[in-house]
Design brief:
With about 280 residues, the protein is an all-alpha fold. Among the domains are: about 55 residues, Arc Repressor Mutant, subunit A, CATH 1.10.10; about 130 residues, no CATH class. The chain contains 14 helices and no strands. The longest helix is centred in the middle third of the chain and has 25 residues.
C-alpha cells in the first residue's frame, strides 16, 4: 500500500469506517512506515481532542438552512458553467481548479454528509417519541443521499482525469467509497486500466474493479487488458484477478501468454499457474 493511499484513508481508519481487510492493510503499513505512523498519531490526538469537546444540542432548523445555502450555491455554480450537461458542467468546474481546491471540494462533500447524518440520527422525533420518522423526511434523506452519491461520483471522475498521478490514484480510491456507482465510474476505471501511464494507478484500478467482477463488461475488459499491458507487474496482478474471480474465459489468453517466448518469464510462469488454478 502506498503512503498517499494510507493518508487518504486515515480518517476512515480512525473512525472504524474501513472494512476489516482495509484496516489490516493500513495497520501493516503503519507498522513499517514511521512517517505515516507519525501522521496517524497526529490525527488520533486531534480526534481525541475533538471527542473531549461537549456537543451542543442540535439545531435542525439552522442545519437545514445552512445545507440549503450550500446546495443553492452549488446549483448556481453549475448553472453558470459553460459546458453542456449536468455532469459535464460540474466536471469542467473541478477540472479547472487546482489540487488544493479539489481537495477542499472533496472535504466539503464529506462535511455535508456528516451534517446530514448528525441531523438524521441526533435530532429527536416530534414530541420526543420513538418510532418511524415521517415519510416525507425519509424521502428527503433518500434524495440527499442520492445527491451526495452523484457529487462523489463527479469528484471521483474529475480526479481520475487529472494530470497528477496522485490525484488519479485518489480518484480510483474514491470509487470504492461510492454506494452503487454508475456505469460511468466502471467505464472510467476500465479506461484507466487500459491507458493510464502510471503503473501504481493501474494496479490500484485492478483492486477497485474487483467489486464489479460480476459484470460482463469488467470481465471482458480485464481479459483484454492482460494482452495490452506492457508492465509485468500489472499483467501478473490481472492474472491473479482472473484466478480470484474464477474467470474461465481467460484460459485462452493465459495459454497464449504461457507459450509466448517474447513475454516476460515471470508473467509466463504466472500464466501457467493461473491455468492450473482454473483447471
Amino acid at each position: 500500500m502506498q503512503c498517499e493511499t494510507v493518508h487518504a484513508q486515515l480518517a476512515d481508519f480512525l473512525s472504524h469506517a474501513l472494512t476489516d481487510a482495509e484496516s489490516e492493510e493500513v495497520r501493516l503499513h503503519l507498522a513499517g512506515c514511521r512517517a505515516c505512523r507519525n501522521e496517524a498519531d497526529g490525527f488520533a490526538e486531534t480526534w481525541r481532542m475533538l471527542g473531549s469537546i461537549a456537543s451542543p444540542a442540535p439545531d435542525s432548523g439552522r442545519m437545514r438552512t445552512r445545507l440549503t445555502a450550500i446546495i443553492d450555491g452549488f446549483e448556481h455554480a453549475i448553472a453558470s458553467a459553460p459546458a453542456p450537461g449536468h455532469r459535464g458542467r460540474l466536471a469542467a468546474l473541478f477540472t479547472q481548479q487546482s489540487d488544493h481546491h479539489l481537495l477542499r471540494a472533496a472535504s466539503a462533500c464529506a462535511l455535508v454528509a456528516i451534517g446530514i447524518a448528525i441531523g438524521y440520527y441526533m435530532v429527536p422525533l416530534p414530541g420526543g417519541s420513538e418510532g418511524t420518522r415521517p415519510t416525507e423526511t425519509s424521502a428527503e434523506i433518500v434524495a440527499m443521499r442520492g445527491e451526495l452519491r452523484d457529487l462523489r461520483e463527479m469528484i471521483t471522475l474529475s480526479l481520475m482525469q487529472q494530470q497528477s498521478a496522485s490525484n488519479r490514484l485518489k480518484g480510483v480510491s474514491w470509487s470504492g467509497q461510492i454506494d452503487r456507482p454508475s456505469s460511468e465510474v466502471v467505464a472510467a476505471l476500465l479506461d484507466t486500466l487500459m491507458h493510464d501511464p502510471n503503473v501504481n494507478v493501474r494496479l490500484a484500478t485492478i483492486d477497485a474493479l474487483e467489486r464489479f467482477a460480476s459484470q460482463d463488461i469488467v470481465r471482458r475488459g480485464t481479459i483484454q487488458a492482460v494482452d495490452r499491458q506492457v508492465s509485468p507487474l500489472v499483467q501478473i496482478a490481472l492474472i491473479d484477478f482472473m484466478v480470484k474471480v474464477h474467470e474461465r474465459e481467460s484460459i485462452g489468453t493465459l495459454r497464449r501468454l504461457s507459450e509466448d517466448p517474447k513475454v516476460n518469464a515471470a508473467v509466463r510462469a504466472r500464466a501457467v499457474w493461473g491455468l492450473q488454478q482454473l483447471g
